[in-house]
Design goal:
The protein is of the alpha/beta class and about 200 residues long. A five-stranded parallel β-sheet has the order 3-2-1-4-5, sandwiched between helices. A two-stranded antiparallel ribbon has the order 6-7. α1 links the parallel β1 and β2. α5 packs across α6.
């Protein structure tokens, strides 16, 4: 069974995190950066979680804690995660159970953000460490200054496509051609374009 990849708009929406240990604390920054209204429920807190700008509920988990939530992150013991998963399922709320695939209905990928572009890598919950390595590799090979140029060009062309009602199937080849033309001045002395700098080009 394949997972359905998606990017969530969490700004202003209630997200509940169960657990306030080191693993839970590592998830908070991404949620807060997305503008989520985060509530953390846990009887014990590490310093990093305690210092975060979240609503603190210092006690054991109760199913009613998930009322009104858009997303749940369970980073507690397996027994508590199972209870969280049951409560989330009853409320039709997706739950990410950290390193606990049987109790998760949502897996979070390794994320790379660069110049307004977001890449996420998932192993369908089988190997989070591998997803992390792939994320690091992707981060290392992405061009540091080119993505912003590509994104600006895509923005410019999108306005033209909308005005001209260009069909979706025609947009990708047009964009690739436009990105290649960005490098028209980056030819070598023989007039050959550098394949390494050209989108869509490959080298052996």
């Amino acid at each position: 069974m394949h997972l359905y990849p998606a990017f969530l708009k969490l700004h202003g929406r209630r997200v509940v995190v169960i657990g306030a240990g080191p693993v839970a604390a590592s998830k908070l920054r991404g949620l807060l950066d997305a503008g989520a209204d985060v509530t953390v429920v846990a009887p014990e807190w590490v310093a990093e979680a305690a210092a975060a700008d979240v609503t603190r509920v210092e006690r054991e988990f109760r199913p009613s804690d998930l009322d009104g939530a858009w997303l749940v992150v369970a980073a507690a013991t397996p027994a508590v995660n199972r209870e969280v998963a049951r409560a989330a399922e009853a409320r039709r709320v997706f739950v990410n159970a950290v390193d606990d695939p049987p109790n998760a209905s949502l897996y979070l990928g390794g994320v790379v953000r660069r110049a307004g572009v977001t890449f996420a890598v998932s192993t369908d919950g089988r190997a989070p460490a591998l997803a992390g390595l792939l994320r690091e590799g992707l981060d290392a090979i992405l061009p540091s200054g080119e993505l912003e140029r590509w994104l600006l060009e895509a923005d410019r062309m999108r306005e033209r496509w909308r005005a001209g009602q260009v069909p979706m199937e025609a947009r990708r080849p047009e964009l690739l051609d436009a990105l290649i033309k960005l490098y028209a001045r980056g030819t070598d002395d023989g007039g050959r374009q550098s394949a390494a700098a050209t989108p869509g080009a490959s080298t052996s």
